[in-house]
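Exercise: predict the fold of this chain.
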Amino acid sequence: MDVFSPASAQAPATSELYFRTLFENAPVASVIADRHTRIERVNAAFTALLGYSVAEICGQSVEDITMPEDVAQTRVNTSQVIRDRSVVRYEKRYRHRDGHAVWAVVTVSSIDVGGRRLLLGQILDRSEVRRIAQDLALANERLSKTHAALESSRQYLAALVENVSDTIVVAAPDGTIRFSSESVRAVAGYAPADVVGMSVSRFVHPDDLPRVAQALKLHAEQPNRTLRGDYRMHRKDGNWRDVEVVSRNLVGVPEIVGLVAVIRDVTERRQQERALARANRALKARSQANKALVQATGEAQLYQAMTQAIVEAAGYSMAWIGLPDEAGARLRCVAACGLTVDRVEAVCVSWPEGEDVRDPTARCLRTAEAQVCRTIGPEPCASAAGFQASAAFPLKNAQGLFGVLCIYSDDAGTFDRVEMALLAEMAEDLSFGILTLRVRAERDANLRRLERSMEATVHALAGTVEMRDPYTSGHQRRVADIAAAIGVALGLPEFQLRGLALAARIHDLGKLRVPAEILAKPGQLSAAELALVQCHADAGRQILAGVDFPWPIADIIGQHHERMDGSGYPQGLKGEQILLEARIIAVADTVEAMASHRPYRPAQGIDAALAEIERGRGTLFDAPVVDACLKLFRQKGFHIPA
């Protein structure tokens, strides 16, 4: 006779000893106390949790093994259970036999047995609760409400097994099911009697069978060891459910020879975990994409960096970006990652006009809205490439759609609502980044045109000055060359060098206000004529005062005859009051003027010119500028251009 069959009055499945054995060997620590909280019975898991023996714990009050800080709350909760016949679940600290506190989650319920009001407590280590289930409280509440009797009552223990929400299964060592609780209907869709005689492997996903075999082997080799595992259970209706299984081999227990397993349906929790993982993946893709947006200097680089962020950083199977052709009926792939040429060709990028397309990429191109296919069937082109889900996101600007971002996954069910929202925001960021790059490129092109126009205007002004003063023809150009060389020697940045060269090129612009006959006079100038010539620096500043250069060109020209000791003109500025560019032009202007022919004197030569600025070093001229100029001519062989 099958000892687990309830057919006989002597059968273990209906005997008091059978259910007592289940209670004593249950993986969850349990305690039974009277209404005054005096402990009458505990199981092995309880003594293992708190370190007391059965003899030490029975007869004590629950408060005796409670940490003093939690005694008051324990009394309140116990009173509520007795008064309302409710189920209370709360956290408290028990006092271990060695004195340390044990944090636990306690579920307390009240039942009547033979006219006595008794308390049933189930205690789980808090860390254990987190690991095996978040919804255990609800299960314990239903479990506690089914208690109808206590240790002397067979009906109480039977109700404990039959009414718990988790499924309890007893199986032979080879995995053949001998008993199942009523809750197997909810998790597997079978009646308890239907599963008796079946193998547990009948309900397990093929991919999980090796782990089940390994668990059975471990149970055989290590009796009384508790094992935990996650599996996929096949229901009678053909669906699959995610379950957690806690199992123990009770070899040596006369009433139960085999395995006891507690099965919990965690499908909804697993779905939430997978949804959270997908959302985290989308967030990671967006984070990496934002880095690409910041670092990209061109559209092609940004497109490629974006697809790499989606695949390599976030873990999607494939990503590519397509731009529609002029007809808008075909996409041209401009960047891709995570696919081979064969897989690119297998993805739909064109479709007949007017066709009712199902591919998300095609729909996105037509509607300019995000599209998704969470489970690709046999008809979309993407299935030929081995993908299980795909999504397409429009890239839009003020004129409308200008591209499509396509993402693929090898996992069916990808791209839920939260994930799609995050990826859509990433596509919007990409659109904005492309727009920014295009605006920046157009701005840079305009700036280059403006700079070329400005430089041409400066050169025209320089030519105008030289036309009025043919004896100094080329003077400004040569001064500009010398000044630029000094600036490079001083390590000036490129932007400042450009401003210096332009200012030097027209530093004598103010001579337009000096009569030509004075500029060309061969002899010494009178005091009045000299004063008129000296006005040219400020005159140049005034001419350019209203021109909005990127550099202080007007002030540089107005100060190029100022001297470090304040003896210059027109303002008598000193030292750091004079712009660096003006100090450089002052040295370059002096060298070029002395080394070149003038109407009133012959050229004095470069050696005399260098000696002159050397004498004025630190008094008339800026010392570092003079040093840089001397080094150019004397050590580096610089020559004044013709």
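Check your answer against the key: The chain has four domains: 1-150, 166-265, 273-440, 469-634.
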